[in-house]
Description:
Layout: H1 3-20, H2 25-32, H3 36-43, H4 51-61, H5 65-69, H6 74-78, H7 86-95, H8 99-114, H9 126-136
Amino acid sequence: MDNETHRLEVGRRIKRLRKAQDITGHELAKRSNISAGYLSEVERGLSAVSVDKLKQIAEGLGVAVDVLLGDYPAEAQDQNVIQIPSALSSAAEQLNLSYRATLALFQGQRSLLARRSKSDQSEWEVDQWVKFYEQVKDYLPDVKG
């Protein structure tokens, strides 16, 4: 595969995953700490993307870099793989959250952390997820207060 074709494929994967998560280019750019214009160029295959920027975009989407590069088996790519942290999974089970509400909580946390400095970004423990849930539960889908 030549460089241009590879750029186009990576860009298409990024855009497909972004749309599957129902987030805007501006939101993903903010989560990834890159400009929206640059993200648009990457999604359209007009700009090459460095490994560091690709990592940032993957983190913004909550997926492994391998998914963006196409190194996952085809069936995994088709499922729009999102990695839910184990602490969130435990908190969701404890709180009896639906997958949709769990994903919304995860995306809300990603958005919150995107606005903070990199030094503030560590993996959350179960109790932090529960506390965050209590603060935002009125805004989550499928949650009865």
